[in-house]
């Protein structure tokens, strides 16, 4: 069953099927598709709704979007075959690695794989309420920073941004919330000062128009030491110049030097049928014009703009679709195969670990697993960033 503390709301997208061309008719989607995403109003949710509308308009497929407050709730329906695809963030990487909330007896490393992901004009970083007076990340020392219970991606991302300024969780006041939306509402209610998110997220725009306002402290790309600290905590982050988002400081002429990673990342399980994932990915590619303007950030899903050689492998069905679109290379194939191997090693380590009668105490279980995981990766000559 889905964790009861994670509330999943369903939104059924209505529309009228339209005639398809000969090329589009090659795509065969099921009558309905269920997708999970971040909370209602977030950029990931809005993009997924836009894609769902395209599925209905172009292919006659009803799309059901389940918004969820954390990574566990987003992946659980996919894991139980109650959803087809999930709009994930960095949590897809943590689930692959079997760390944080996935370093538990119920989860462990997951064979998650990706299809398409978005990198657009927006950035991903720590937003700060404007009335706090913070202009740099270093000035967050002693301030209230939001965490979301059961969402290691958001929390680790916040720590990665703090690391840029040489700060840790001990240097700030951590305030915990039940969901991403609750955290941003907390900012409006003056319960928290800074929270991680996308510059184009709906809640960020709400904060911008509130009495508190919003600012996005930059992460200057010239600060190599700062970026080295970021990647020690969040190895999936890259430098990015953001030109859009909530806040008066954004401009195409004067972009903010900030960070990002692909988001949303449309995620499936490796066990899902190759043809099923191929058709989904092909629909996302061929139907791009039908959703690219449907929500801020959706245009970042363009097939030619896909992030290459990322931290989680691309599903074989998606690889087939990318190859057909001329958006795949031999270098990517080699990198992808190495990531498949990493997942196999983590899965074997998890199986061997559980055969050894690990502790029944949850905290000790996680500690023992992290130790076994570290040893397995070291034996295979693979990097361990945790």
Automatic annotation (TrEMBL):
Q: Which GO terms describe its cellular component?
A: periplasmic space
Record localization: Periplasm
Q: Name one GO biological process term.
A: alkanesulfonate transmembrane transport
Q: Which UniProt keywords apply?
A: Signal
> What InterPro entries does the record point to?
TRAP_TAXI
- Origin, by domain of life? Bacteria
- Chief place where the protein resides: periplasm
Q: Where is the signal peptide?
A: 1-25
The keyword Signal is assigned to this record: yes
Which family does the record assign? Belongs to the bacterial solute-binding protein SsuA/TauA family.
Protein name per the record: TAXI family TRAP transporter solute-binding subunit
Species in which this protein is naturally found: Bradyrhizobium sediminis
